[in-house]
Amino acid sequence: MATRYAHTNLIAHDWQRLVAFYTEVFGCRAVGARRDLSGDWLARATAVPDARLSGQHLLLPGHGETGPTLEIFSYDVVHAQSPPVADRAGYGHLAFEVEDVSASLAAVLAHGGSGLGEPARTRVPGTGDLEVVYARDPEGNIVELQSWH
To answer: What is the mean pLDDT of residues 5-29?
Structure first.
């Protein structure tokens, strides 16, 4: 059976705020219907008793109409976690290739995100020159902004 990457899920305290952020800052686009899901099937699949969630899939830029999506959902009850750090085990960050790292960082900040690192440049042997910075979306998730030259 063939395998195809489908989506990455991001659980948000306020899914609508994060949908607006990723749409306005990175050009993601809502695809498909808004999801309002609940029922025994969801509780069984997620192991979350009485699970109920709402959200939206966003088509990621640069991959066409059938590309992978960023699925941003909020459960009725969202358990808090400590802010992610770059060297924590597990999923680390979302990365976007941008034309201008500084301008993209300014857009992140203007739309409710925050800085994490500071822009840096390096030569990656066999690949090219990289400019990169880590930032946070409005809920503290890490976003990498990278530009290859």
So the answer is: 96
DSSP state string for the chain:
------EEEEE-SSHHHHHHHHHHHH--EEEEEEEEEESHHHHHHHT-TT-EEEEEEEEPTTS-TTS-EEEEEEESS----PPP-TTSSS---EEEE-S-HHHHHHHHHHTT-EE-S--EEEEETTTEEEEEEEEE-TTS-EEEEEEE-
The model's pTM is 0.91
CATH superfamily membership of 94-148:
2,3-Dihydroxybiphenyl 1,2-Dioxygenase, domain 1 (3.10.180.10)
Q: How far apart are CA 49 and CA 46, in angstroms?
A: 8
Q: What are the extents of the domains in the chain?
A: 7-75, 94-148
Rounded Cα distance between 59 and 69, Å, is 5
pLDDT at res. 97: 96
